[in-house]
Amino acid sequence: MANEEDDPIIQEIDVFLARSLLEKLYLFQYPIRPASMTYDDVTHLSAKIKPKQQKVELEMAIDTLNPNYCRSKGEQIALNVDGTCTDETSTYSSKLMDKQTFCSSQAASNVSRYAAAVYKKGELHLTPLHGILQLRPSFTYLDKADAKHREREAANEGGDSSQDEAEDDVKQITVRFSRPETEQARQRRVQSYEFLQKRQAEEHWVHLHYYGLKDSRSEHERQYLFSQGHGLAENTELIKSPSEYLMMLMPPSVEEENDKPMAPSNVLSMAQLRTLPLADQIKILMKNVKVMPFANLMSLLGSGTDPTAVLRCVQQVALLVQGNWVVKSDVLYPKDTSSPHSGVPAEVLCRGRDFVMWKFTQDRWVVRKEVAAVTKLCPEDVKDFLEHMSVARINKGWEFMLPYDEDFVKKHPDIVQRQQMLWMGIQAKLEKVYNLLKEHLTPKKQEAQSAHPLLVSGEQRVNMAKAKVRQNYGQLEKEFQKQKAEMKSNDTSAKTDVANIRIKEEPVSVEEPMDTSAHSEGLNNGLVNGLHPAQGSTDPVNGHLPGGCIDRVAQELKAFVSSTFKKQFVLTLSELKRLFNLHLASLPPGHTLFSGISDKMLQDMVLDTGCKQILVPFPPQTAASPDELKVYALWEAGDTYDQHRQVLLEIFSKNYRVRRNVIQNQLSQECGEDLNKQEVDRVLKVSFCSLW
Q1: What is the DSSP letter of 206?
Q2: Is the dihedral angle over the CA atoms 576, 577, 581, 583 positive or is it negative?
Q3: How do strand 123-128 and strand 115-120 relate by DSSP bridges?
Q4: Kind and range of the H or E run holding 553
Q5: Looking at residue 594, what DSSP letter applies?
Q6: In whole angstroms, what is the distance from residue 615 CA to residue 629 CA?
Q7: Distance between CA atoms of 387 and 121, rounded to whole angstroms?
Q8: Which 8-state DSSP code applies to residue 338?
Q9: What is the mean pLDDT of residues 365-370?
Q10: Minimal CA–CA distance to 300: which of 276, 282, 316?
């Protein structure tokens, strides 16, 4: 208060905001005037501007009669620039340096804080500036003088050359075809200094007319510096509180983005990143990091971010591999792009990289030669795939770069299960595209099979299978009786024709959990998509459901099994489980089938829907898994091929490999009709399209 009393208000001035020249007013800052140059009306010879760049060139006259002007120096400069001859293209037509060119540069990138003020009759009129340009002398005439000098030297050298010079002009050239430009290469080219200079040079100059200070047109334009209406309606910006008014006149200093050094196109600061939507933040982070644990991703997004929203967004741009998130291939290789090494389209690159990611869901180690042999891609592309997510180890291969994240798997079992279903779908696509063999689908076992397989006849295989059945007869009969007691009503006949029962080759334990990961046998690290077998089971009570839900689950399961076997009449247990997992992946969260379906429940439902297990006598030394040895078939489908299908199933129950002519003869005998080769092929295709 004391300071305010010592500094009393002397006068109050009304302030008005003029808008007529709002985006047209520039402030020119001239350099210090030399003694031979005056900035009066006659010195401005011409002016031109590039509006987009806010670049101005002014041509101003030099007073050659001034005693401070060195005439001999002016003549020498004109001679160096134009030479001895004068024409329309000459820079100095008077053979004397009588003018000077000034080029502008922006003095400040943010001019919103500056305005031109005019004080008149107790009123202050402000007009915001559109730009502040500093004028500096241009020395392009020196470049022109150097070019003239080089032309004269070239002409002198050309006069001394012989007539044989024409023969030297014939030179061998090499034609090269440029590779397709990638998106990153295009961004680097656009940000380059050469490209920016070319863009600036492409803008045409706009010639201006200069009007002097005392010209009537200048006087007319100066009237626009005053506010056209003094009413409050047109000056609402100035009806502010003292603090707001002061903030408008002197806003806080903010470092402009243009003043910062230009960063590469693929670099984004964390401050800029957090201004983007959450989905864009996660996409940019995953695209740059490529492999990241969920905990690290949450720390980069900052405190207060909802983990549920992050999980929902990260699944759109990444896949789960060994408990860590790896960016999807289509994010790194967008559509209509190609490889910078080989020119291969993005679709092929995505398939190859998906194969590498899928291999890491099976094992921590991947061999580069194996990937190249399957994908048929060039070594540079394969190396890029591996460097995205693994580290090379000498004499071992490529190891996944991050350890298995057990914490994430334990906290989010639903996410892990859904990702596992997605990987099974990707595996099915890769099998069709690359025709994957058995050794590609499962890791190699440490102990190899016997080098000399045993040769066993078909009759011996049948006898061995029957002997195995007799050994397990007692246990299987008890299980069958228990199963019938649970599934049938009390009035069901207890008499069972044991002779008509197809005895299973291997016993099925009551507490056997359903293995939802096909091809998981023999993994040396026990990982399937980063999930341990003990943690992958979704059955809370060993496959048994609460009493209130069992009917509903049985109906859903029966509907799936019935529809599946009506489409594919013969299926192995392994293929049936794969189709069931794909069916689960398409269901909404919280569906009744997610409560847990064991192997036993699935097999029992197959038998209850009218299917039978076919005891195919596979060779003992086969490398197939137990689930692949269990074959189920729909005995009666109600179509015209029921009889043919039953004959075929009887044939394959005696031998796993049968010649076509044997099948043709057996069908003709049993069905009482002569079938040609095309009809036999049709019967085989309709009956065993999913198995053979």
Answers
A1: E
A2: positive
A3: antiparallel
A4: helix 550-567
A5: G
A6: 9
A7: 75
A8: B
A9: 89
A10: 282
Q: Which two tokens stand for residue 299?
A: 């720390």
3-state secondary structure of 345: strand
Q: Which segments of 403-452 does DSSP mark as H helices, in order?
A: 406-411, 413-434, 438-441
Calculate the alpha carbon distances from 449 to 26, 461, 472, 618, 639 in Å: 87, 19, 26, 16, 43
C-alpha dihedral over 111, 112, 118, 119, to 10 degrees?
A: -130
Take residue 685 and report the two structure tokens written for it.
């295709």
Q: Which residues contact 210 (CB under 8 A, 6 or more apart)?
A: 44, 46, 47
Enter the tokens of residue 315: 């699944």
Question: Across the chain, what does the average pLDDT equal?
Answer: 75
Q: What is the DSSP string of 218-247?
A: HHHHHGGGS-S--SGGGGGGG---HHHHHH
Between vectors from CA 192 to CA 191 and to CA 196, what angle results, nearest 5°?
Answer: 85
Q: How many residues does the chain have?
A: 692
Burial class (CB in 10 A: 0-12, 13-18, 19+), 97: buried
pLDDT at 311: 92
Residues 340, 355 contacting (CB under 8 angstroms): no
The number of angstroms, rounded, from the C-alpha of 65 to the middle of its chain's C-alpha atoms is 70
Give the model's confidence band at 507: pLDDT under 50 very low, under 70 low, under 90 confident, else very high: very low
Nearest to 652 by CA among 684, 675, 679, 674: 684
Beta carbons within 10 angstroms of residue 473's beta carbon: 12
- What confidence tens digit (pLDDT) does each residue in 394-436 have? 888 899 999 999 999 999 999 999 999 999 999 888 888 888 7
- Beta carbons of 159 and 151 less than 8 angstroms apart: no
pTM over 0.90: no
Is the predicted pLDDT of residue 498 greater than 50, yes or no? no
Element spanning 652, H or E: helix 642-652
